[in-house]
Amino acid sequence: MRTPSTFWLMQLGIWGSLMLLNLFVRGYFSHYKLGELINSFSLFISLMIASGVLRRFYRDRGTDDSLPKGIGQAVLGSAIASLVAIVIIGLVLLPNQEFLFGEVSNLALLQLLASYPNIFLFLLCWSAVYLLIKRQKALKLAYTREAELKEQLAASQMELLLNQLNPHFMFNAINNIRALILEDTDKARDSLAQLSDVLRVTLQTKQDKLWPLVQEIELTKSFIKLNILQYEQRLVVDWQINSNNIERWLVPCLSLQLLVENAIKHGIGNSKEGGLITIKIIANKSLTLEVINPGKIAPSSSSTRLGITNIQQRLNLLFEDKAHFSLTEHNQLVSAKIILEETQCSAQ
To answer: Which residues, 6 or more positions from 263, have their beta carbon under 8 angstroms from its beta carbon?
Structure first.
């Protein structure tokens, strides 16, 4: 929640103030005897240790978004920490009663246990404040991540408009469609519809974070067909879908399409002979999207890595460590792979 030094300084201030108040009240009636000083100091030490135990308890279990469970967590943690505090105070005071207070009381243990509700109340209030601050910090972090995601999605949209659907691509697509009008009117009409779909989705990327995998596949197929108009026999695509229920999966919008775009641009586009692009989709306990193309991984540069960097940043913002991306090369083949955990990308 805070840095360790800040946390313990706050505990010193809170429990130190309580110790002084306890010493003042008890000392007023007992003329500040040594026993009262040790009693107050043992209370201070026990509460310092108890707050440390509470902090570890909440850190190990996290904070629950459910209010009833959050209250239950606070009560349980405070009860355990209060017991720790009582044990510490008992270990200090009970064996040393005669030295500290001049006599041994048979009711000392009962008096110690009677203080349990007060200590529990102190620690419960501490827990409420601690968990509230921690929850507010988590919300602030979530808002920050949301703002970063929106900014990244806006950058993604701009990149797609300037890079993926750049004027050169648009020029080739429109000219290829124009040539088709005289040769195959129906095919030209279909190609215009495909270009319209790709443009529409690209313009909507700013609003959409996740969408159905089936829609991502259809968009990618439309994008590939537009590129086949340019590359013709040089571009061959093999779809390998190993799943009977892809309808329930959600993926980041334009994720697969961007992998395919990079494969065409840096694989097929750099080869006179062209080649085969293999698209593998495997869905079981996790979802794997893999695009394999002939070629080599180009040296790091803004033009080559822009799309890949965009994918990595979006996956990190959307899923943190629940998504994995890799780019590897083996036997003159480049593989770009995205793996998403089921709980993160399956539709309810």
So the answer is: 277, 291, 292, 293, 334, 336
In this prediction, residue 6 has a pLDDT band, given cuts at 50, 70 and 90, of confident
**CA distance linking residue 215 with residue 213, whole number of Å:** 5
Mean pLDDT of 327-345: 85
Q: How far apart are CA 340 and CA 321, in angstroms?
A: 10
Alpha-carbon distance of 276 to 234, in angstroms, equals 8
Separation CA 325–CA 289 (nearest Å)? 10
| Cα separation, 336 vs 338, whole angstroms | 7
Q: Are strands 333-341 and 275-283 parallel, antiparallel or unpaired?
A: unpaired
Q: E strands of 152-256, at which residues?
A: 210-212, 235-242, 250-252
Tell me how crowded residue 289 is: count the other CB atoms within 10 A of its CB.
Answer: 26
Q: Is the predicted pLDDT of residue 205 greater than 60, yes or no?
A: no
Number of neighbours of residue 78 by Cβ within 10 angstroms: 23
Angle at 181 between CA 269 and CA 176, to 5 degrees: 15
Are the beta carbons of 63 and 131 closer than 8 angstroms?
yes
Helix, strand or coil for residue 209?
A: coil
Name beta bridge partners: 339: 288, 324
Contact in structure between 208 and 248 (CB atoms under 8 Å): no
Q: What's the half-sphere exposure (Cβ side, CA atoms, 13 Å) at 117? A: 3
Render pLDDT for 212-244 as a digit per residue (tens, 0 to 9).
999 999 989 988 988 888 888 999 999 999 877
* Two tokens, residue 288: 């794997």
Token pair in block for residue 257: 């399409």
Q: What is the pTM of this model?
A: 0.52
3-state DSSP assignment of residue 292:
strand
CA separation for the pair 203, 164 (Å, rounded): 12
Q: What is the spatial distance between Cα 282 and Cα 203, in angstroms, rounded to a whole number? A: 28
**Residue 253 C-alpha from the chain's centroid:** 18
In this structure, the strands spanning 286-294 and 210-212 are unpaired
Query: Residue 69's pLDDT band (boundaries 50, 70, 90)?
Result: low
Which of the 8 DSSP states describes residue 212?
A: E
